[in-house]
Amino acid sequence: MHLGVYKVIFKNTSQNKHMAEEIKNQNNQQQDKKGLKVVKTYETVRVVMAMGIL
């Protein structure tokens, strides 16, 4: 389902690791402000976490 995403992620691994940190930081900030926005960004974080497992 997310194979296309993985291909893009693996093209720039070092850059995406940096992006992953930013996404985590953004997610923490959004969690404090709005619960609804977290649900939307949680999908991105889940993909990033799956990338870490792979």
Major β-sheet annotation: none
- Look at the helices and sheets and give the structural class: mainly alpha
Name the overall outline: globular
The low-confidence runs, each spanning 5 or more residues with pLDDT under 50, are: none
Radius of gyration: 12 Å
Total number of helical segments?
3
Compute the number of strand runs. 0
End-to-end Cα distance, whole Å, is 15 Å
The figure for the number of domains is 1
Mean pLDDT: 65
Helical residue percent? over 70%
Strand content: under 5%
How would you sum up this structure in a few lines?
By secondary structure, the protein is mainly alpha-helical. Helix content is 91%, strand content 0%.
Topology:
Blueprint: H1 3-11, H2 13-33, H3 35-53
Helix pairs in contact: 2-3
Provide key terms for this protein.
54 residues, mainly alpha
Give an overview in words:
- The chain has 54 residues and is an all-alpha fold.
- The chain has one domain (3-53).
- The protein has helices at 3-11, 13-33, 35-53.
